[in-house]
């Protein structure tokens, strides 16, 4: 009839030291009262006291994730910017080829439309076709 209660997980203070040191590296200090077993987190605008090490671990882990998330986003943004620059550069490199290989204004417009709507590969195929047709005609 009675439900068994699961024992609360036990966390030793030595398990928290790497997390607390990482938090300290992010600008948040900490202090420990050996007599009471309490841990204090020192923030720029206040101090938080923890009696329960399980709650402390959850709080510190959340703080670390929250503070590292902007760094993670910044690295993703840098990666996306690099991909975008590579993409733009690859398309810009085709513009002189279009001007060189097209004999008429209509061919240039068609090549630019292919470049814009279907991509660089389709545009290159079209330019290659123009080169082949020109070499066969001469």
Number of strands: 3
How much of the sequence lies in strands comes to 5-15%
Domain module tally: 2
**Tell me, what's the shape?**
rod-shaped
Q: Given the helix and strand composition, which structural class is it?
A: mainly alpha
**How many H/I helical runs?**
5
- Rounded average pLDDT: 84
Any key phrases for this structure?
138 residues, mainly alpha, 2 domains, 3-stranded antiparallel β-sheet, 67% helix
Short description:
Helix content is about 65%, strand content about 10%. By secondary structure, it is mainly α. It is rod-shaped.
Task: Give an overview of the whole structure.
By secondary structure, this protein is mainly α. The chain has two domains: 8-69; 80-138. Helix content is 67%, strand content 10%. The protein is built from five helices and three strands, in the order H-E-E-E-H-H-H-H. The chain has helices spanning 13-25, 53-92, 94-101, 105-117, 120-137, and strands spanning 29-32, 39-43, 46-50. A three-stranded antiparallel sheet has the order 1-2-3. A hairpin with a 6-residue loop joins strand 1 and strand 2. The model has no long low-confidence stretch (mean pLDDT 84).
Any chance you could write out the topology, listing elements then pairs?
Layout lengths: L12 H13 L3 E4 L6 E5 L2 E5 L2 H40 L1 H8 L3 H13 L2 H18 L1
Antiparallel strand pairs: 1-2, 2-3
Helix pairs in contact: 1-2, 3-4, 3-5, 4-5
